[in-house]
Write a structure and sequence with these properties.
- About 40% of the residues lie in helices and about 20% in strands.
- By secondary structure, the chain is of the alpha+beta class.
- It has 2 domains: about 110 residues, no CATH class; about 140 residues.
- β3 and β4 form a beta hairpin.
- The two termini are about 45 Å apart.
- Pfam families: DUF4145.
- This is DUF4145 domain-containing protein.
- It comes from Geothrix limicola.
């Protein structure tokens, strides 16, 4: 996962090289002259203020990007907000320049690399989370929480537990992850961290972009271990190489 590209802004000539979720080979590039923008009404009205400067300007924009792979060329519609800020034009000088921050990209690029056999229910929830990354951080964390529920279902973690009176009680996501921790302590504790993030988002807590990027990075690793069995596969490869190439004892 390349974290940096998800916090970069767009210019009139280029967008960050977000990965194409269709071919998984190309990256997005801005379609030349496709970015159009307009100053918002509130921003225009503010021009008459005595203390006004260009830093008060705000825009709404739309643009098109396209996958760079020649056999794909999928188009992506981007929209968001913008403004004017100081930028360095050479070694000694700064000047005002336009900037544009994405809020929506349709279709949304995949922010992490998925294992090939990821169940479609988990994939669907994570893609919903990606689409909310710029637009609403709390809602994004909520979709991550739902993806965790789907993962627990896939892993066969029970939704109910029999209490000491012999009756079944419903397990919360927290309880289900605790059950999984008894099987896989390391990965389970990583999933519990994601659950706490979801709690913060659902209770109107403050989340920033770094929090969500941390969550996606953890998810990429955890899914690679759980679904892709990355460590188990590497261990098996190492075992095979050792058996084939290590010197035999006399």
């Amino acid at each position: 996962m390349d974290r940096n590209i998800w916090t970069q802004q767009i210019t009139k000539d280029e967008c960050p090289p977000w990965p194409c979720s269709f071919c998984r080979k190309g990256a997005l590039a801005i379609v030349m002259d496709s970015l159009t923008y307009h100053e918002t009404t509130d921003s225009i009205r503010a021009h008459g203020h005595d203390e006004w400067d260009p830093g008060w300007i705000s825009y709404s924009f739309t643009a098109w990007a396209q996958c760079t792979h020649p056999s794909c060329k999928q188009l992506f519609a981007i929209s968001g907000t913008g403004g004017v800020g100081m930028e360095q034009v050479d070694e000694h000088n700064w000047d005002w320049g336009d900037f544009f921050s994405p809020q929506i990209c349709t279709p949304m690029p995949d922010m992490i690399v998925f294992p090939n056999k990821l169940p479609k229910e988990i994939l669907s929830e994570l893609r919903a989370a990606f689409s909310l990354f710029w637009l609403n951080r709390e809602s994004c964390s909520g979709r991550i929480r739902v993806a965790l529920e789907c993962l627990m279902d896939h892993l066969g973690v029970p939704k109910r537990r029999k209490n000491k009176n012999g009756k079944f009680t419903e397990l919360t996501l927290h309880g289900r992850i605790e059950v999984y921790v008894t099987r896989e302590p390391l990965i389970g504790s990583q999933l519990m961290a994601l659950k706490w993030l979801g709690n913060t988002g659902s209770h109107n807590g403050s989340l920033n972009a770094a929090d969500l990027l941390d969550a996606f990075e953890i998810l990429e690793h955890a899914l690679g271990e759980i679904i892709g069995r990355r460590s188990a596969r590497v261990a098996e490869l190492a075992k095979t190489l050792t058996k084939k190439h290590a010197p035999r004892k006399p």
